[in-house]
Write a structure and sequence with these properties.
The complex is a heterodimer of chains A (about 475) and B (about 350). With about 475 residues, chain A is an alpha+beta fold. Helix content of chain A is about 15%, strand content about 45%. Chain A folds into two domains: about 1-85; about 90-140 and about 175-475, Porin (Beta Barrel), CATH 2.40.160. Chain A has helices at about 1-20, 25-65, 75-85, 110-115, 215-220; strands at about 90-105, 140-150, 155-165, 170-180, 185-195, 225-235, 240-250, 275-280, 290-305, 310, 315, 325-345, 355-370, 380-400, 400-420, 425, 430-440, 445-460, 460-475. Chain B contains 15 helices and eight strands. Chain B has a four-stranded parallel beta sheet with strand order 2-1-3-4, covered by helices on one side. Chain B has a four-stranded parallel beta sheet with strand order 6-5-7-8. In chain B, helix 5 runs antiparallel to helix 6 (about 165-185) and helix 7 crosses helix 8 (about 195-205). The longest helix of chain B is centred in the first third of the chain and has 20 residues, at about 1-20. Chain B is globular. The chains are: A alpha+beta (about 475), B alpha/beta (about 350).
Chain lengths: ~475, ~350
């Protein structure tokens, strides 16, 4: 062990001197070269010493029996240490390539329907337009995910995940987590996915279906609830599994917790969103596992809408002219529950494994009109929107490496708006049924065929749509194990 | 909210009292049932031992259930096979448990592969095109009785660090386990006459076969050595590369696997190739665990004339295999029948 450590130090110093040498001038280079030569000689000597030692120890182990009665292991551990390969402190690095082909039966694309759905439609929150139109017909590269993670020191672990797509790179996660706190506490900070519910904290390559559940997509957008913030969680010392967490986020989710702060919207300092959740898992016998959760969140939300043109003033044009003309500010909240049941069959390669999961999500936006260029009388009036949705899905490993799955989703069972002018509106619900078949040649690759059939309540009436996905994804490098 | 905290407090109290009840015992959680069996032999009454895998399932494929996190949360010692056998599920359990005592590198984290001589350690660059290769060596080492003997010593030493007051008892228990193992391996008479260490040395340097060909020595041999004597020098085919250590210790060799590459299910083309080799190598036994399908093995048996032996490779995998010694009894018995 001492030798491998020394070896590592020597290598490290070699690398460092080498790196510094690039910037140094000519004379310094000569000195450095000399130094490198000396270090190399030392390294060779050490290597030889190490080889000798290993050989000697190998000889003793094959010749005699270690282990006996009183102090059996002392000598063996030395052997073990020299057997091991050189360890490094490099972080675990993995790359995930997630690509799919998509086709649908709609004229304007499935992303357009999602934007026009009654009650859930576009909010134009924040100053900038978001360019996430979801999937395109044809080939899609969802992203290339770069993951780095490692123990930082005895106290923290760090993980950084960058999602790169054709439009640029995005920091999906950059989080620091404690590993040293007593009594079951853990603190996480940085930018990360909220751990509420089940599917929100999963990365897209972990999902059992290619697309995000409809209610999550509509309520929280293409990225789910992922924000800068801090989380404190606690694993209770109960005889069953009980994990609870509180999260404070800056609050800049594009759909539900947006902040603009430009006049006439009031400026609000962060954190502007609080989330709490609790997960409970009874001790089921054998290979059964169950986890149930409840969650809720409350935060500030601001919307800037553009519904009317300036010339001539007051003419309602649904598309707008690109200039915001009325503003809403207030609170947005959500709550719901999730349940996951897994049967982990004893067979290899996922054969016989069964997973059933469901989530219910309800939201309420309680906003006040704080500015209106064309109808000043509405200033001070409130607007309340309530919506909900759920999904149910199940997958079954019917052969080694093969899984089949079905999903049923409904959104807008509650779908109502109390408008600032005193009127109310209520909209219908939409549903989507999906089915998928996937094949995982190994732990590191997967091909999936998925079909969706949906009927969507939109501003233009009811629209049916059929979609097909053919997804292909792979993972390179040391990809860590996934949570339950 | 108030009711919620009431119940939470209540639950915490309830948990506290259950923890209290076994506070005097060390709590050991192992990843596999074999490690649990050996740990139980060494720890005796001083510890409460649990295992994540039951012995009936493939340890490569385990879901990190919430219940495992609860077990790990309360553990004083976590013992794993290592060599990346548990790579698919160990980390979420350890991290989820928030138990600083059993983190990798802590005193409460024991990698049982420490101090073992490993097989199949790749000598060249590995890629995943080779299938599910374990870059640090073949992790199925527990079926080698000599490794079990060493693991008992490793566990005893670590337990002595965690509970110095019981150190003498742990050493005594480990020695008793080792002696029982020696006698099951070679027969009590031979152990007495020649000494266990000398006998194990013969199984390591490959001289056991010749030594036993002397009728005087063979007559004194008992236990697994005697039972496996007819199989010495034979070639066998296994499903996964999980019987290598066992074969090696008893002087057999593994001529091929039903899996074309580790972790890849058998294919028709591969079976055709295997059937040819099996005939030319004179393979009489196709050995596999109960959790794999026997379809491929039966096909190969039909084509090559070999016998299929299905037997648990882990404690608890079959009812008869209640602990480590009875597991080996079972395996040796099944193999010796053929």
């Amino acid at each position: 062990m001492h030798f491998s450590r020394l070896y590592g130090v020597v290598l490290l110093s070699l690398a460092m001197t080498g790196a510094c040498g690039l910037a140094a001038d000519e004379s310094a280079n000569t000195n450095l070269l000399e130094e490198v030569r000396l270090l190399r000689a030392r390294l060779d000597a050490l290597e030889k010493q190490l080889a000798d030692m290993t050989a000697r120890q190998a000889a003793t182990t094959t010749g005699t029996i270690l282990v006996a009665t009183a102090s059996p292991v002392a000598s063996e551990n030395v052997v073990a240490a020299t057997q091991r390969g050189m360890q490094s402190f490099n972080p675990d690095i993995s790359v995930i390539i997630d690509t799919f082909y998509h086709a649908d039966s709609t004229k304007e694309g499935i992303g357009h329907i999602a934007g026009e759905m009654s009650g859930f439609g576009h909010t134009h929150a924040g100053g900038e337009e978001h360019h996430h139109h979801g999937v395109e017909d044809g080939f899609n590269l969802r992203h290339l995910e770069l993951q780095f993670s490692a123990d930082v020191d005895p106290y923290f672990t760090g993980s950084a995940i960058a999602a790169i797509d054709l439009e640029g790179a995005e920091m999906e996660e950059a989080a620091i987590t404690t590993t040293c706190l007593p009594w079951g506490f853990k603190v996480k900070g940085g930018k990360f996915f909220s751990d509420f519910g089940y599917i929100n904290a999963q990365h897209s390559h972990q999902w059992d279906f290619t697309d995000r559940p409809l209610i999550h997509q509509l309520a929280l957008g293409e990225h789910g609830l992922n924000d800068k913030g801090m989380q404190v969680s606690w694993l209770a010392p109960t005889p069953f599994y009980l994990l609870t967490g509180l999260e404070a986020f800056q609050g800049d989710n594009e759909n539900m917790f947006a902040y603009q702060g430009e006049d006439p919207l009031p400026s609000r300092s962060g954190p502007r969103l609080g989330v709490g959740w609790i997960k409970f898992g009874p001790n089921l016998p054998g290979r059964h596992a169950l986890q149930m959760g409840l969650f809720g969140g409350l935060g500030n939300h601001q919307e800037a809408h553009d519904g009317q043109t300036e010339y001539p003033p007051g003419v309602w044009t649904p598309g707008g002219d690109g200039i915001a003309d009325h503003w809403l500010d207030g609170e947005s909240s959500f709550w719901g529950g999730d349940v996951v049941y897994k049967y982990d069959a004893p067979l290899p390669c996922g054969e016989g494994d069964f997973v059933w999961q469901a989530e219910y999500f309800a939201r309420r936006k309680d906003l006040e009109m704080v500015g209106n260029d064309f109808a000043p009388a509405l200033i001070g009036k409130s607007r309340v929107d309530t919506q909900d949705g759920y999904y149910l899905q199940a997958t079954y490993g019917f052969l080694p490496r093969w899984r089949a799955g079905v999903r049923w989703e409904q959104v807008g069972l509650i779908n109502a708006s109390d408008l600032p002018d005193g009127t109310s509106a209520s909209y219908g619900s939409s549903y989507r049924a999906g089915t998928m078949l996937d094949f995982s040649p190994s732990e590191f690759s997967r091909v999936r065929l998925q079909a969706n059939r949906g009927s969507y309540e939109t501003e233009d009436g009811r629209e049916p749509a059929t979609e097909v996905f053919l997804q292909w994804m792979i993972s390179l490098g040391t990809h860590g194990a996934h949570n339950f | 909210m108030r009711t919620f905290f009431f119940w939470l407090g209540f639950a915490a109290l309830a948990a506290g009292s259950t923890n209290q009840a076994r506070a005097d015992k060390l709590r050991i959680v192992t990843t596999t049932a074999d490690l649990a069996a050996i740990a139980r032999s060494v720890a005796g009454d001083a510890a409460d031992v649990r295992s994540v895998c039951t012995g009936r399932e493939d340890p490569h494929f385990i879901a990190a259930k919430p219940g495992f996190i609860v077990q790990a949360r309360d553990a004083d010692l976590w013992i794993r096979i290592g060599l990346e056998l548990e790579i698919g599920w160990e980390r979420p359990i350890l991290e989820g448990s928030r138990n600083t005592k059993i983190r990798v590198g802590a005193k409460g984290h024991l990698d049982a592969s420490e101090g073992l001589l490993l097989l199949d350690v790749p000598q060249t660059q590995v890629t995943r095109a080779m299938g599910d290769v374990h870059p640090m060596g073949n992790p199925h080492y527990w079926l080698d009785p000599l490794n079990a003997r060493r693991i008992a010593g490793t566990i005893a030493a670590r337990l002595a660090q965690l509970a110095p007051g019981h150190a003498a008892a742990f050493a005594r228990n480990a020695a008793a386990f080792q002696q029982a193992l020696d006698e099951r391996m070679f027969g009590a008479e031979l152990v007495k006459a020649v000494g266990a260490e000398a006998l194990w040395a013969k199984t390591q340097d490959g001289t056991m076969g010749t030594w036993l060909s002397d009728a005087a020595n063979a007559a004194r041999a008992g236990g697994w050595t005697k039972a496996m004597q007819p199989l010495r020098g034979q070639k066998i085919i296994t499903y996964h590369r999980s019987w290598l250590y066992l074969a090696n210790r008893f002087g057999m060799s593994v001529s091929g696997e039903l899996e074309p590459k580790p972790g890849v299910p058998p294919t028709a083309a591969h079976l055709t190739e295997l059937a040819e080799n099996a005939k030319s190598d004179g393979v009489k036994i196709i050995l596999q665990e109960p959790f794999y399908s026997t379809k491929a093995a039966n096909q190969l048996a039909e084509r090559s004339g070999a016998h299929v032996v299905v037997v648990a490779n882990s404690v608890g995998g079959q009812p008869e295999a209640g602990d480590y010694l009875t597991l080996l009894d079972l395996i040796v018995g099944k193999l010796a029948q053929k």
